[in-house]
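Researcher: Let's walk through a ligand-bound prediction step by step. First, I give you the protein sequence. Second, the SMILES string for zinc ion. Third, you return the three-dimensional complex as structure tokens. Ready?
Model: Ready.
Researcher: Here are steps one and two:
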Amino acid sequence: MYVIDLTHCLDEKGMIAPQKGPARKMTHFLTAVVAQASDLDRPSETPGPFCFKCRKRDESVVDTAIDTQWRIVWCQCHRA
Ligand SMILES: [Zn+2]
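Model: Step three, the predicted complex:
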């Protein structure tokens, strides 16, 4: 399990700091996971965020959830 503090992805103004490259791609994925997991009104059939590891996006989505300790978690993508 990895624990990620998203505040490390922000600049001093609270904006997403990485502008390009793998750090930006990872930050984009992580914020999509947070948005998906924290949207408690979303229909259950809504697909999860695209996996940041997979190059092809066909069905390479992850499932998100909030665990019993209020951590946002995601499961390995469906392609892996
Ligand atoms: Zn994947």
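Researcher: And what stands out?
Model: The chain has a mean pLDDT of 88. DSSP finds one helix and two strands in the chain.
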